[in-house]
Amino acid sequence: MTHTKISMAQALNQALRDAMTADESVVMFGEDVGALGGVFRITDGLTAEFGEKRCFDTPLAEAGIVGMAVGMAMNGMRPVVEMQFDAFGYPAFEQVVSHVAKMRNRTRGRVQLPMVIRIPYGGGIGGVEHHSDSSESYFAHTPGLTVVTPATVADAYGLLRKAIEFPDPVVFMEPKKLYWAKEEVDLTESQPGIGTAVVRREGADATLIAYGPAVPVAMEAAEVAAAEGRQLTVVDLRSVVPFDDETVCAAVRRTGRAVVVAEASGFASVSSEIVARVTEKCFHSLAAPVRRVTAFDIPFPPPKLERYQLPSVDRILDAVDDLQWEDS
Amino acid sequence: MTTVEERLLPSAEPVCLIDQNGVPHDHPSYRLPTKEALLDGYTQLIRGRRFNDQASALVRQGRLAVYPSSFGQEACQLAATMVLRDGDWLFPTYRDSVSIMSRGVDPIETLTLLRGDWHSGYDPYEHKVAPQATPLATQLPHAVGVAHAARLKGEDTVVMALVGDGGTSEGDFHEALNFAAVFQAPVVFFIQNNEYAISVPLARQSAAPSLAHKGIGYGVPGERADGNDLAGLLAVLGQAVEKARAGEGPQLIEAHTYRVQAHTNADDASRYRQDDEVAPWLDRDPIARLTTYLEQQGWLDDDVRAAAEAGAVEVAAQLRDGLMPEPEVDPADLFAYLYAGQTQQLREQAAFLRDELAREEA
Ligand SMILES: Cc1ncc(C[n+]2csc(CCOP(=O)(O)OP(=O)(O)O)c2C)c(N)n1
Ligand SMILES: [Mg+2]
């Protein structure tokens, strides 16, 4: 296949299409995913192409959606379900935490749940309340869940294909503000698997560790820093759980300084976990405490105030400047 | 002795006192509202419709982030509040701006959420209107709690809890009905069945004979009404409110109406429904039929029409004027309302943002 210019939304749609073609047991369901094609059009055309049995609308109940997916996965299918928005996945929390995450463990591995919960997440789209949450930390904190999040179009395709093929349940977090940006990609090109972080940019001076919607901001910051004479490495986690200690720590050891960038609030979050791990594992390589650029510890703001909450290039550069480049 | 079924099941047909041609009908259980009530309703409908039209126009001009219109559902919006007393509570959703405004909430404050300057614009205690709920059906257990607390305190408050057809599928809807029934809480659960939950038609939402039938399993009496007949709605909701107030416990009312427009301005309804499905509903418009009826009674004189039009013009002007200037938003508010007392961490974060903004300005 040659390179095509497509958006993340289109790549996700293609991944679902290809997965459903490749494996008859893959079924897609949720709210408005049928005729409408999902409010973000990620399931566009799937019902028309594969029929009602393979892609269908459910009654409006997230606990029901996830609970039914558990049962279908127990009975030989590979369900992919959509939570319409981050915060509308919360009614399903009990199913996710008490059953999706624990089934393998409870049954000594006898019951596996090869299912994917797709969640559009994060801000930057001017959504009113409950439409911009970063809910990844709730899931990452729950043992038994695999949590991945793409930051590029190629990864959106590759990671979703891998998530659907994965033997365990995957919470697949889609940064909704990246849905529409197009990239030139070759979807047939193989991507690293779940559990692997990748270095998006090499630089000797410090490492930015980011995931999901924060990755493009970190890349932009690295660009600006380079122009100002400081070379930054950017690591894209891709997979929050399992966490790729090796790639992250190798980058931090090479550069001796690090800033974690995340769109979620910082307190008790994925970003705090990253700082803890890096500090525990790379302490003697660090020339300065690891810094974080995260959202404030407040509910996601209304549209008119959201720009204050999102990580920015300036905040990242300020944090980098703060990495004790010389003794004060 | 009435049987359980007679007590709990809804009427065989939705109650309709004035049909779509403006023709009045007798009903064994419900009486036509008074002339005064219908004229008041007419005035409010005209104003409510204009509110919807103006808000939709302002969305197109970028003055609102989003507007889920109740165009065509105004009879439900207004009947829900016309049957309440001052001390009663309303629990609305994102679609119920007209209802909220009709309780006396300032139109601009009503739209704060949808304008995007804060999550909710009005003081819920001032007019006893809970913040609009976006997570579906989650407001219903709160409504039960408010009602139960009122009973414990010896007050005769009634709570009007609004929900859509789609919302009745959520677990919270069922838990709320059950709690209300067990505690005999004075809640009127009012379902605006507009046939759609975004793209999903009612037939894909529920296999129940009607949504009002969902009451019987919980021991809650169900009733259904033509949702575009203000007269029927006033009668049915009025009776439900009085029963709840009299200690007869929760009531479940389903209004059969239709979402004439797309889910919101961001939605494209042509992807999931045909225009010829919409057309017959335009003939059932709540304003047209009431107008015909009032005209035939000889009650719709120039004064009433002029007063109604004046109310509509006023609310449209309020929206235009109030939404035109960019809202004043203060970043310090981000940290102001999380806890009764400020935490050390939030103080630090607020200071961080203050410094950042000061540097930007310098
Ligand atoms: C818990 C939850 N899940 C999903 C959504 C997304 N959503 C917003 S409105 C809507 C449809 C609601 O339909 P209905 O209850 O019939 O109300 P209507 O919009 O027709 O007034 C959906 C799915 C939500 N707001 N909350
Ligand atoms: Mg509806």
Short description:
With 328 residues, chain A is an alpha/beta fold.
CATH superfamily label of the largest domain in chain A:
Thiamin diphosphate (ThDP)-binding fold, Pyr/PP domains
**Fourth CATH level, the homologous superfamily of the largest domain in chain B:** Thiamin diphosphate (ThDP)-binding fold, Pyr/PP domains
Number of domains of chain B: 2
Low-confidence stretches of chain B: none
CATH topology of the largest domain in chain A: Rossmann fold
Pfam family, one (chain A): Transketolase_C
Protein name (chain A): Pyruvate dehydrogenase E1 component beta subunit
Domain Transketolase-like pyrimidine-binding (chain A): 6-181
Cofactor (chain A): thiamine diphosphate
What is the strand and helix layout of this fold?
The complex is a heterodimer of chains A (328) and B (362).
Chain A: E1 4-7, H1 8-22, E2 26-30, H2 46-50, E3 55-57, H3 62-74, E4 78-82, H4 93-100, H5 103-106, E5 116-121, H6 136-140, E6 146-148, H7 153-165, E7 170-175, E8 182-185, E9 198-201, E10 206-210, H8 214-227, E11 232-236, E12 239-241, H9 245-255, E13 258-265, H10 270-282, E14 291-295, H11 313-321
Parallel strand pairs in A: 2-3, 2-4, 4-5, 5-7, 6-7, 10-11, 10-13, 13-14
Antiparallel strand pairs in A: 1-8, 6-12, 9-11
Helix pairs in contact in A: 1-7, 3-4, 8-11, 9-10
Chain B: H1 4-8, H2 35-60, H3 74-82, E1 89-91, H4 97-102, H5 107-110, H6 112-115, H7 124-127, H8 139-152, E2 159-164, H9 171-182, E3 187-193, E4 196-197, E5 200-201, H10 202-205, E6 222-226, H11 230-245, E7 251-256, H12 275-283, H13 286-297, H14 302-323, H15 344-361
Parallel strand pairs in B: 1-2, 2-3, 3-7, 6-7
Antiparallel strand pairs in B: 4-5
Helix pairs in contact in B: 2-3, 2-13, 2-14, 3-11, 8-9
The complex binds thiamine diphosphate and magnesium ion (MG).
Description:
- The complex is a heterodimer of chains A (328) and B (362).
- Chain A is α/β, with parallel strands linked by helices and 328 residues long.
- Chain A has two domains: 4-185, Thiamin diphosphate (ThDP)-binding fold, Pyr/PP domains (Rossmann fold, 3-Layer(aba) Sandwich), CATH 3.40.50.970; 198-321, 3-Layer(aba) Sandwich (Rossmann fold), CATH 3.40.50.
- Chain A is built from eleven helices and 14 strands.
- In chain A, the strands form three sheets. Chain A has a seven-stranded mixed sheet with strand order 3-2-4-5-7-6-12, sandwiched between helices. Chain A has a five-stranded mixed sheet with strand order 9-11-10-13-14, with helices on both faces.
- In chain A, strand 6, helix 7 (153-165) and strand 7 form a beta-alpha-beta unit.
- Chain A starts with a strand and ends in a 7-residue tail after the last helix.
- Chain B is of the alpha/beta class and 362 residues long.
- Chain B has two domains: 4-329, Thiamin diphosphate (ThDP)-binding fold, Pyr/PP domains (Rossmann fold, 3-Layer(aba) Sandwich); 330-362.
- Chain B is built from 15 helices and seven strands.
- Chain B has a five-stranded parallel sheet, sandwiched between helices. In chain B, strands 4-5 form a two-stranded antiparallel ribbon.
- The N and C termini of chain B lie far apart (81 Å).
- The mean pLDDT of chain B is 97.
- The chains are: A alpha/beta (328), B alpha/beta (362).
- Chain A binds chain B through residues 31-32, 34-37, 39, 57, 59-61, 63-64, 87-88, 90-91, 126-131, 267, 296-299, 301-305, 308-309, 314-315, and chain B through 65-66, 113-119, 134-136, 166-167, 169-172, 197-200, 204-206, 267, 271-272, 327, 329, 331, 333-335, 338, 345-346, 349, 353, 356.
- The complex binds thiamine diphosphate (TPP) and magnesium ion (MG).
- Thiamine diphosphate sits between chains B (95, 134-136, 164-167, 194, 196-198, 259, 263) and A (31, 60, 84, 88, 91).
- Chain A: This is Pyruvate dehydrogenase E1 component beta subunit.
- Chain A: Pfam families: Transket_pyr, Transketolase_C.
- Chain A: Keywords: Oxidoreductase, Pyruvate, Thiamine pyrophosphate.
- Chain A: InterPro entries: THDP-binding (IPR029061), Transketo_C/PFOR_II (IPR009014), Transketolase-like_Pyr-bd (IPR005475), Transketolase_C (IPR033248).
